[in-house]
Amino acid sequence: MNSGILALLAFLPILFAGTLLVGFRVNAKFAMPLVFFVTCIIAYFFWGVTSSRILASILQGLVITASILWIIFGAIMLLNTLKYSGAIKTIRRGFSSISSDRRIQVILIAWLFGCFIEGASGFGTPAAIAAPLMVAIGFPALAAVVFGMMIQSTPVSFGAVGTPMIVGVQGGLDKLTITEQLLSKGLEWESFFKIIISEVALIHAICGTFMPIFLVMIMTRFFGKNKSWFEGISIFPFAVFAALCFIVPYAASAIFLGPEFPSIIGGLFGLLIVTIAIKNKILIPNDNWDFAPSKSWPSKWMGNLEISLDKITSKRIGHFMAWFPYIFLAFLLVLSRTFEPLTNFLKSFNINFSNILDEEKINAGFQILYLPGGILIFVCVMTVFLHRISFNQCLKVLKDSTQTIIGAGFVLIFTVPLVRIMINSGINNHDLSSMPIAMAGGMSYLVGQIYPMFAPSIGALGAFLAGSNTVSNLMLSQFQFETANLLGISGALMVAAQSVGAAAGNMIAIHNVVAASATVGLLGREGDVLRITIIPTLYYVFFAGLITLILLDIFNGKDPLLMKKIYNEQTYSGPMGMGLAKSYQLDNKKVCIYNTINGQEEVVLSNTVQDCPIKPPEILDEN
Q1: How far is it, in rounded angstroms, from Cα 540 to Cα 542?
Q2: How many CA atoms are closer than 13 Å to the CA of 508, on its beta-carbon side?
Q3: When you count CB atoms within 10 A of the terminal residue's CB, does the N or C end of the chain come out lower?
């Protein structure tokens, strides 16, 4: 079977899912089981994946699903705990006191607070935390999910304390072989990895500068009274300012400190500076923008968390105590990822499954305390005592949270396993590459020399499938590097483009959409979310591809693996300045430069042991 047909077959589950969810608006709880069975059929009959490996992949997917649901459950629990304690009412009043302008609120919560949470935790946590918070202060549930998904772009490559770079890129590349190549040029792996990090930061910095204004434009176009792209454009100077308050420290941290802290530092610095700017009305527009009254909202905007908070409790909580659970959550997330003794302690509580059903490289684990879900639950318990929530209210919190998560669980038990089947399909009876690699190979063959423009799209495709920048990088980094070698261009830049695209792909990852929707009770509207989030995703991968093409002219020659090493350079003085003038070793060859009556001539010898003849070979032949 030729590679084109294989690529098309590998793409079929994605095409089928997109057609059902976006084209026909089929509810994900009906669409994803169908896509799951199509994937199983393709893997078994066309890829030759054994039934044992398919079953092992399904079991692996179910363990991963449990991890995702644990995070969702923790996020919902925290929201409901704050709702019943009265803290959410205080937070709503606090945001209104800072600014009642929804454009400013979405930039503060989604862009800055969300970027910080992504840096600290990653793995879908920002949408799970930011989306319900936006709903609590009066955003439509559909809008909250869309904005929660959109922030999973610029900060993601350095999310979870750098995991997509440290684990994804380093684990996805053939580090041993590349290190040997670098050592032959007198360089080390760290210098090469630093180039990748810097290029990732640079591409993200340029693309991310326009994400806050994109958030506002999406809000006014799809959720505004007048359905206009430019109704809220007066916020443009403030939006760019807020973007730069994140981007500048973010990029500087990546270039000078490494991949662990750019999103954390950018988020914290941005929140501080932007809040001060709002208080002092710096760059704040004169007009104020808000949604139409909630009574006029279409039913598809609504989730089952849209309820009157006044009917739940009359208790009043102070501003600091209301925000303390979120502050403490952020502190614990950072501490758990950076303080090694605590990290090791939390990771020690791990349910681990290795080589499931004796299938090679199919492993899964459930780290009940280290996952953000465990930390969220701990913060919930602490909040119960701090806010003095009654036992009956605790039962209501538990009941509401459980009911919300059931629907998400049904969709995810099909979505995640089908992804794992595709990823694990590389071990089969037909000696075929895995389905994601087949898709990527088909695209690279199709676009040829303009491949760098599409490198981010391949990364996004991997993240769309896996719902993870890290997994996309693990799957596709080496593919991107090898493709760059075939084209004779910078492998470091192609890997950087891969990571940037994989970050953007999180905006349309199906099980991330399901997870975020579950936190606001919006299950069944996944297609509506994807129809909107595909727009910023296309912007991001197109712009990132364009920047990659431009950067090739700037950085291609600076890739250490493309730089030619010259050594043992010697000069000679022939009669009247003619004959052998200079020689040097270039990598594994010797180059001889001659002065002749026709100008300089260059002769390349196949090995460095040979000595350069005194005269050029053609002159020697004549004599």
Answers
A1: 6
A2: 29
A3: C
Largest CA distance in the chain: 106
Least confident of 309-318, 554-563, 596-605: 309-318
Contact 595, 578 (CB under 8 A): yes
How many CA atoms does the CB half-sphere of 177 hold within 13 Å?
7
| Mean local confidence (pLDDT), 318-334 | 87
CB 41 within 8 A of CB 51: no
- Between CA 553 and CA 528 the distance in angstroms is 40
pLDDT above 90 covers a percentage of the chain that reads: 46
Residue 328: partners with Cβ closer than 8 Å, 6 or more residues away? 379, 382
Write the pLDDT tens digit of every residue in 151-176.
999 999 998 878 899 888 988 888 88
- Residue 612 backbone phi and psi in degrees, to 5: -70, 130
How does DSSP classify residue 168? I
- Which tens digits make up the pLDDT trace of 259-277? 988 998 999 899 999 999 9
Which of 351, 385, 325 is CA-nearest to residue 75? 325
Alpha carbon distance 181, 346 (integer Å): 38
Tens of pLDDT along 78-96? Answer: 878 988 888 878 877 777 7
On whether the CB atoms of residues 453 and 203 are closer than 8 A, the answer is: no
Q: Which residue has the tokens 């862009």?
A: 111
Is the Cβ–Cβ distance between 232 and 220 less than 8 Å?
yes
Helix (H) or strand (E) holding 298: none
Q: Tell me how far CA of residue 207 lies from CA of 64, 97, 165, 270, in angstroms.
A: 31, 31, 18, 17
User: pLDDT higher for 301 or 181?
Assistant: 301
pLDDT tens string 186-225: 788 988 999 999 999 999 999 999 999 999 999 999 999 9
Which of 129, 107, 108 minimizes the C-alpha distance to 118?
Answer: 129
User: In sequence order, what are the residues at sequence separation of 6 or more whose Cβ sits closer than 8 angstroms to the Cβ of residue 41?
Assistant: none
Strand partners, 353: 364
Total Cβ atoms within 10 A of residue 45: 10
Which has more confidence, 537 or 128? 537
Question: pLDDT tens for residues 560-575?
Answer: 888 776 778 888 887 7
Which strand ranges, in their side-by-side order, compose the sheet holding 599-605?
Answer: 566-571, 579-586, 589-596, 599-605
How far the first Cα of the chain sits from its last, in Å, is: 59
Taking the CA atoms of residue 465, residue 468, residue 473 and residue 476 in that order, the dihedral angle to the nearest 10 degrees is: 0
CA dist., res. 436 & res. 47, Å (int) = 12
Number of residues written out for the chain: 623
